[in-house]
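tool_call predict_complex ligand=zinc ion
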Amino acid sequence: MTPAHDSPLKWLAVSVILLTMPTRPVVPFSARPAVFSQFPGNSQVRTALEWFDSHRAWIDDEQARLTEIPAPTFQESDRAAAVKVLFSAVGLEVSTDKVGNVIGLLRGTNEKEIVVLSAHLDTVFPAGTDVTVHREKNRMSAPGISDNGAGLAALVAVARAIHEARIRPQRNILFIADVGEEGEGNLRGMRAIVDAYRDRLKAVVVLDGSSIDHVTTKALASRRVEVVIAGPGGHSWSDFGIPNPINALVRGSVRFINTRVPASPRTTFNLGQIEGGTSINSIPHQARLKVDMRSEGEDELIRLEAALRDCISNGVRDEMESSRDRSKGKLEWKLEVLGSRPGGELGPNSHLLAALRAADEFVGNQSRLERASTDANIPLSLGIEAVSIGAGGNGGGAHSLKEWYESDGREVGLKRVLLTLMGATGMAEEKSR
Ligand SMILES: [Zn+2]
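tool_result ok
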């Protein structure tokens, strides 16, 4: 933190946001002088913020340790167990729910309301991927080191800083390491959390990756589907002429990739995985295709999914019509929805955004609002205030084996997370502890 950040004015700004964000109506501007008398609360915040400066090595080490515990989507339990130990060590009331989320509760003075700070446990890397962390100078390299090693490290660091500083929030805080964020996890961890706490849930802060120059406040609607085409199958020579599922899939796919999508609302599609067949000299009995579709407008998604069905249906028809031997059977196809993420948007006047903006100002950060598909989709789609933010430092190569992370300046991101969280929960006065 630079000296300028310690100026009384900055502390006043933070203090105002901390003491006006909570459960009761916002304290009117004229009440500012009263805020001065509540400064003791801020000495705890200051202690917590300083904890990040003095524990860089601990945070780096925990990030590396957690990253080296494999956690493919649907196989997060080992990493979850490690987070559970860290949560317990800082006095949280820890539990695991039925889908495998680790939940650490810090009770506030107002238990009727809850704020969630979460980071997803899972990675896109399949079991068996070498997740050894290689350290060279200030750089750590490993699959998942940034997404979401950085988020998990921040989650446990913020929990520990709050514990060390003996901060008591107004609203209950749930620290959550959740499952199933990536790919076909379909946000199942966050869905379970929102389901369980929906009535009391006031805000959700999602930590994902490193970057602090953007804030996801708009949930990108997406749909993920799998197309399966099945046929009789046979020998490449002796059965030549029977309908071939791969041919049909290719015919349909070529039609689909010519589908026009609007630039606004921005709409995208990706043919991400294609598989089928058993050997080079066999006519396959099955072909599969996975498609990811995203849009700023949910109507476009509906249109795009309909287009895909149409194209595959036509591809199958073309293949059937051009086959010269239909005696062994015909092609069947189906389209299965693997995942569907709803859209939604955080209002410009929300308390959570105000808290984040105040935190940004305090740490001297500038961030722009973006739309993306994250765990925040679930609360946002239900009108619950939520953001997804990075945890600080620098990272790159997400979802690749060359993923890397550098923790220089990470403290800025961690302070921003802590201040945003405290802004969203409010702080109990010291005397009430
Ligand atoms: Zn992530």
